[in-house]
Specification:
The chain contains 10 helices and 5 strands. It is an alpha+beta fold and 210 residues long. The two termini are 28 Å apart.
């Protein structure tokens, strides 16, 4: 499947805010938003002076969500259709679906610095769900599912190095982390209040409801 492999810092500059796409770098002075906090391109400094239309705001919010979670358009739309079929507010359901992706759960549990890194670790076969090896980053985790680093992978240099970090990692209330066992569990479906996101999901709903 196609995957964007270009520079990701320009996505933050285009959105006008940090999207935290590069892990620890986003918290350092090397962050592109710290050095060049305007849109990329020769006319970037003028971007935020324009008055945006409702449609432009809707598209921008959709693109921001796609970039934060690293999802291509076709899969993004499929997640949205699934959220539409659920009871409750479509926007809140949609964020809940995105948060339950395996790559996001691995990131939230602290096994990776970014969702991009989490996807790579999953594709390399380092994780299992309910005891079964899983290498599909878009796999949706259900309440009660256990996500763990595979036994063969625990001896890898990377996972030995992050063991101490995991002991100090704070995870969202809807997750439980076992730092010693290098495993985590989804306790409940994440509610909108439990998701620390600046996304205006209603604009995404408006975009797909046109």
């Amino acid at each position: 499947m196609a995957r964007y492999t270009g520079p990701v810092c320009k996505h933050c500059r285009r959105a006008g805010e940090k999207l935290f796409l590069k892990g620890e770098r986003c918290f350092s002075p090397k962050c592109a938003m710290e050095r060049r906090g305007y849109a990329p391109g020769m006319h970037g400094r003028r971007q935020f002076r324009r008055r945006a239309s409702d449609y432009s705001l809707q598209v921008s919010e959709k693109q921001k969500a796609r970039r934060i979670y690293g999802v291509l358009e076709r899969q993004f739309r499929r997640h949205y259709r699934e959220a539409e079929r659920m009871e409750g507010l479509t926007g809140a359901n949609f964020l809940s679906v995105l948060e339950r992706r395996l790559d996001n759960v691995v990131y939230r549990l602290g096994f990776a610095d970014s969702r991009r890194q989490a996807r790579q670790l999953i594709l390399h076969g380092h994780f299992e769900v309910n005891g079964q090896k899983t290498d599909i980053p878009s796999c949706l985790i259900k309440p009660g599912d256990v996500i763990a680093v595979r036994e063969n992978s625990k001896a890898k240099v990377y996972f030995r190095a992050i063991r101490e970090v995991l002991r100090q990692t704070a995870v969202p209330d809807w997750l439980r982390l076992d730092a010693e066992g290098m495993a985590g569990q989804l306790l409940v479906l994440p509610s909108r209040e439990a998701i620390d996101s600046t996304l205006a999901e209603q604009r995404i709903v408006e975009y797909y409801s046109r």
